[in-house]
Amino acid sequence: MSIKVSLPTAFTRHTDGRKQFDSAAENLPGLLADIDQTFPALGTQIKGEDGKLRRFINIYVNDEDIRFLGGETYAFQDGDEVMLIPSIAGGTD
Amino acid sequence: MNYSCTRYELKCNECGKRFGNQPLSACPDCLAPLEVVYDLEAVRGVFTREAIAAGPANIWRYAALLPIPEGFQPDLPVGFTPLVKATNLGKRIGATNLYVKNDAVCFPTLSFKDRVVSIALANARRFGFETVGASSTGNLANSVAAQAARLGLKACILVPADLEPAKILNTQVYGARLVRIDGNYDHVNRLCTLIADEYNWGFVNVNLRPYYAEGSKTVGYEIAEQLGWRLPDNVVVPMAGGSLIRKIRKAFQELVYLGLVEDKPVRFFGAQATGCSPISTAVKQGTDDIEPQRPNTIARSLAIGNPADGPAAAKMIRDSGGWAEDVSDIEIVSGMQELAETEGIFTETAGGVTTAVTARLYAHGRISPDELTVTCITGNGLKTTDALAGQYREERAVRPRLADFDVYLRELDGIAEPELAAAGEN
Fold first, then answer.
1. Looking at the domain assignment, is residue A72 inside a domain?
2. ipTM, 2 decimals?
3. pLDDT number for residue A90
4. Residue B186: its pLDDT value, please?
5. Contact residues, B window 231-250, toward A, CB-based 8 Å cutoff
6. N or C: which end of chain B has fewer CB within 10 A?
7. Does any domain span residue A58?
8. Nearest 10 degrees: CA dihedral of B256, B286, A72, A36?
9. Which pLDDT belongs to residue B30?
10. Nearest residue on chain B to A62, judged by CA atoms?
């Protein structure tokens, strides 16, 4: 089983310029552990001092916010496209 | 693509790092939103009541505290909208000291978005962008399209596919490229974040966001100035992304710091539609954690299910001693009608939200009748007329004769009278 993970340009300084990588993680905690292993600097950037994912990052699975899918309990499916995006934009009227 | 300026620069809200001026909205280290900070001491003696009064009757009278690049000559008279005492609405909802800040008549596109877009595009031009863009629920699209046309910039605007027809037409007429996205605003917004990452475009609410958001401060400056340089007791503000309510507070704080108004506690009240109420839900639950929602409301201009400034807005509201409420779609329509019938102000659905929430805040005793309260109307009803579909019957045409007119009026009254009598018997 494998998922495709995409990153914004702002993160690629920690991944040797790579914007995409594959992971065999089964869920979100697994993916974070995988990132810690493969790209430790990225792992540090996306997590706060408490070890949790920073609240300014949103994670999408196939265009859906992972929080609508069960968050950490969601089991990745083979071929899932997972995106990490800073929640920078937001307000409009 | 950055410029130096001593008066203001970008700063990270979380870690405090500064970044000069560049098209950047999130801290590269901790990813938190960036904000424009000013050298307030540098404008002391410049940003005075007298200097402002001598300025033009639009937002540029406050230019000293706006992130406007040197050399940019603003020419659109944006803002400085009426602040009107709402005596009639007040009588209906039990308020004796209520004002309406009426951005339904903001120039040039009839919403408060004209304020933020003018600041964003000034910076887009300074950064050298030839194309500007926005993710929008409508008002922002209208304003970017109009002001980009004026500045000679190309505009590409992304909106949810189900947007009100008036807001789509009001974007296309300015010659902007409009792309309808098969999804809700949060989908559109995410796509714009990806586009801004790949294309060299200035997205007003993505990579230009810190500058853009500062334009909202002008609502706060105007309220204080129009009240005779004093702060209100309460402000009621509609919330989509949660930015406007925080910027009004920032404006008040700057005015206090520079001595233009006396310091006093101001309570901030947020208004949302129940069908998209992530911030009001957080306020009611006493948390800063925003649970994203899938929007389902007629107030599409407030339908942001995952508001970026939500956590900060929720915290600020509670810290101020304020509160947040949300109202149903039926109440939204009633709110639109109530404001129109009492004050002659036709607002869009978002203004229906704000008016209905304001009424509820008085009804629940969260705001006392005599407290100086300003409720912020941010958009025009002509853009969301479909929300009123079915509310008014199309009456039969009457022959152009006095006798026919007479009969017709009696007919109308005749319909009303039995109903009144029946109601009286019950």
1. yes
2. 0.86
3. 43
4. 83
5. 238, 240-244
6. C
7. yes
8. 40
9. 79
10. B187
User: Residue B306 is nearest to which of A8, A10, A65, comparing CB atoms?
Assistant: A65
Task: Check if B142 contacts A (Cβ < 8 Å).
Answer: no
Tens digit of pLDDT for each residue in B364-403?
999 999 999 999 999 999 999 999 988 998 888 999 999 9
Domains of chain A: total: 1
Q: Which residues of chain B have pLDDT under 50?
A: 417-421, 423-426
Nearest neighbour of B206 by CB, restricted to A56, A65, A88: A88
pLDDT at residue number B165: 87
Query: What does the domain layout of chain B look like in residue ranges?
Result: 83-110+216-388, 113-213
Digit-coded pLDDT (tens) for B49-108: 999 999 999 999 999 999 999 888 888 999 999 999 999 999 999 999 999 999 999 999
The reply to whether residue A56 touches residue B301, judged by beta carbons under 8 angstroms, is: no
Instruction: Say whether residue B359 is in contact with chain A using an 8 A CB cutoff.
Output: no
Is the minimum CB–CB distance between A57 and chain B shorter than 8 Å? yes
On whether any CB of chain B is under 8 Å from the CB of A86, the answer is yes
Test A90 with B243 for CB contact under 8 angstroms: yes
Which residues in chain B have their CB less than 8 angstroms from residue A57's CB?
31
- Determine if the peptide bond prior to B418 is cis (ω within 30°): no
pLDDT digits (tens, 9 = 90+) for A2-51: 999 999 888 888 999 999 999 999 999 999 999 999 999 999 888 887 88
Chain B closest CA to A82's CA: distance in Å?
13
Is A91 a member of any domain?
no
Any domain includes A92: no
* Domains B83-110+216-388 and B113-213 alike in fold: yes
CATH of the domain at A30: 3.10.20.30
Report yes or no: A17 at the B interface, CB cutoff 8 Å: no
Domain region containing A15: 3-86
> Does residue B303 contact residue B272 with C-beta atoms inside 8 Å?
no
User: Measured between CB atoms, does A81 come within 8 Å of chain B?
Assistant: no
Fold of B83-110+216-388: Rossmann fold (3.40.50)
